[in-house]
Each structure stands twice: as structure tokens, then as C-alpha cells.
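Task 17 of the worksheet. Students: predict the tertiary structure of the chain below and write it out as C-alpha cells. Keep your answer in the requested format; marks are given for formatting as well as content.
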Amino acid sequence: MTRRRYRSASSGPVFARRVRRARRGMAAVLFAALCFGCAGGEAPVIPVDLSLEIGASGEVDPAATVHLSVYHAWTGVGELRYPLEIVEGFETGLGASTFSFDYPAELGEGLVVYAWVDSDGDGANCTPAARGDMADLVEVEAFPSQQVSVSLFLDAPCAGPDWFFPGPEPERSEALEPQEPEAPEL
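Model answer:
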């Protein structure tokens, strides 16, 4: 009786060709990743030390959690320019605090610091049933800077950062209003 040898699917010339082809494809992907990854480099960052003093009215529990966010004031260019692109977020309490973060300079301009106090401890900035969370926002005028000092007084109820910044909507001029197209002269 002779024994037959069975080849598994992972052996033989067909499988070996597939492995070589896969290795070549993977090598090309790795080479491209190295080339494009190194070519772009890292966006320049500004290391920022943020010192802040956060106060609130007497009705806010002094032990309540304060949610702090730092934003680019503006991001994008032209018609794609928009306010408030988040850079970093922190949790703190009322009083004095210090934080450090990296500000990606090429991704936007300006610095806005926003904070809200979680008065009811639910982790949400106001709900239909609980309207006691207070907030404030400051646009840092002298920026870019590696040392920033900000004072916030949390007294605006249920206000997100877009309530404070960029401020009131500019009035639209008549030139921007939709107009009827003129009929061509014959």
C-alpha cells in the first residue's frame, strides 16, 4: 500500500506566488507611508502654560466640577472660515488652576478659553429639567504667547461657547440678498 501525500492549501507554487505578491504590495505601502509621513512633518506647536482664576456666584457649590475648553478662535480660510475649533479640554474646580497644552499654530488662529460649571453633577451643560449650569468665555487678546493668564466668572446660565463667540451676527448687506436674474436684452 502506498501512501499519498496531500498538500495543504498553504503549500505549493500557487500559494508561494500569492505570498510573494502580497509581500511586494505590503512593501510598496510601507514605502509610501514612510515617504509621505516624513515629507509632511509635524505641524509647529506652541507650548502654552495657561493660568486661570475661575469664580462663580454664591449659589454654585464650591466643590462642583468645572469643564474647561481651549479653542482656536478661527479656523479655515475664505468662505470655509469658522469659529471655535477645540484644541484641548480639562476638568478642574473653582479657584486658581494651571494647565499646559500644545497649541497647533498652523491649524487655526487666536485663543478662546471657555468654562462651565456642572452645578447638578449630571455631566451635561444644562438639560430641560436642570438649568443651573453657569458658563463664561474669554478671547485671549495677546496671543500667540507661551504664558496666558485668564479670569472667568461663571454667571451665564446654560450658555455654550457659541453663545459668547464670535458675537452678534453681522448685518447682511443688500448685495448679499438673493436677487432676481436680469432678463437678457434682445
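Marker's comment: The chain has two helices and eight strands. The chain has a mean pLDDT of 78.
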